[in-house]
C-alpha cells in the first residue's frame, strides 16, 4: 500500500506554486495524454482562498492554472486590480491568494462530475483548504458556494442559494469569512465593481482577526 496522499497536506511551509502539498488524484478519468487534475495553485500561506467547481467549468486542463477559462476573465481582472495577481496570463503570480477546485479531477469534454466523484474528492478538498488555513474563502458559482456554506458555516439552511443576491456579500463561517462570487460569465454591469469594492474594503481592515471573530459567531 502506498503512502497516504493526504499526508503532505499537514506541511504548510513550501515555496511550490502548483500543488504545494503534493496531492494525488484518487482517480483519473481524463482522456489519454490529458492532465488528470488541476491542482491548487498560488500562495500556500495566503489569507484569501478562491474556490471553484471543476476544470470543465473554470478551466485549467490545458495549463494547470485554476480559473484560466476565458469566461473567468472578469474575475481575473478584479484579482489584478486589487493586487492578488501579477505576471503573465498563463503563468500568473498569486500573492496572498490560493486558488483550487472542489472537484480537481478533469473529465472528458462534455462530462460533468457525478455526486459520487464529488464525494470521492471531498476529503482532498477539505485537507488542502485546512492546510492553506486562509481567513477569507471566496467560492465561485453555485456548486462551490453550496459546498463551502454547507461545510464551513452553520448558515446553509438559512440562506437561499441565489448567487445574484449572495454575490460579494460577507457571511460569517466557522473560523472563516465567506465572500460568495457569482459565475463571472453571468455578471451584470455592476457586479465586477461590487466584488472589487468588497475585496478592497476587506483588505483595508484588520481581516486577520476574522478567524477568531467568526469562530464565535458562525
Automatic annotation (TrEMBL):
Q: Name one GO molecular function term.
A: 4 iron, 4 sulfur cluster binding
Residues covered by the Uracil-DNA glycosylase-like domain:
39-185
InterPro entries named among the record's database cross-references: UDG_Type-4/5, Uracil-DNA_glycosylase-like, Uracil-DNA_glycosylase-like_sf
Among Pfam families, the record links this protein to:
UDG (PF03167)
Q: Name one GO biological process term.
A: DNA repair
Where composition is biased (Polar residues), the residues are 9-20
Query: Is DNA damage found in the keyword set?
Result: yes
UniProt KW keywords: 4Fe-4S, DNA damage, DNA repair, Hydrolase, Iron, Iron-sulfur, Metal-binding
Gene3D superfamilies noted in UniProt: Uracil-DNA glycosylase-like domain
Out of the domains of life, which is the source?
A: Archaea
Q: Where is this region: Disordered?
A: 1-32
Q: What is this protein called?
A: Uracil-DNA glycosylase
Q: Which organism is it from?
A: Natronococcus occultus SP4
Amino acid at each position: 500500500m502506498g503512502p497516504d496522499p493526504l499526508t503532505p497536506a499537514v506541511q504548510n511551509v513550501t515555496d511550490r506554486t502548483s500543488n504545494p502539498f503534493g496531492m494525488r488524484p484518487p482517480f483519473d478519468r481524463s482522456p489519454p495524454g490529458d492532465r488528470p487534475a488541476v491542482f491548487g495553485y498560488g500562495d500556500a500561506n495566503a489569507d484569501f482562498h478562491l474556490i471553484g467547481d471543476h476544470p470543465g467549468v473554470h478551466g485549467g486542463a490545458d495549463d494547470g492554472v485554476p480559473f484560466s477559462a476565458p469566461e473567468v476573465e472578469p474575475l481575473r481582472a478584479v484579482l489584478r486590480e486589487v493586487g492578488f495577481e501579477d505576471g503573465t496570463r498563463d503563468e500568473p503570480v498569486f500573492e496572498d491568494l490560493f486558488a483550487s477546485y472542489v472537484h480537481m479531477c478533469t473529465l472528458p469534454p462534455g462530462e460533468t462530475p457525478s455526486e459520487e466523484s464529488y464525494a470521492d474528492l471531498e476529503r482532498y478538498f477539505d485537507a488542502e483548504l485546512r492546510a492553506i488555513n486562509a481567513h477569507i474563502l471566496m467560492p465561485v458559482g453555485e456548486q462551490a458556494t453550496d459546498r463551502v456554506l454547507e461545510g464551513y458555516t452553520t448558515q446553509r439552511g438559512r440562506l437561499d442559494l441565489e448567487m445574484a443576491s449572495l454575490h460579494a456579500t460577507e457571511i460569517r463561517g466557522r473560523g472563516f469569512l465567506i465572500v460568495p462570487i457569482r459565475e463571472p460569465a453571468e455578471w451584470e454591469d455592476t457586479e465586477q465593481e461590487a466584488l472589487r469594492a468588497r475585496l478592497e474594503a476587506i483588505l483595508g481592515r484588520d481581516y486577520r482577526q476574522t478567524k477568531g471573530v467568526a469562530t464565535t459567531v458562525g
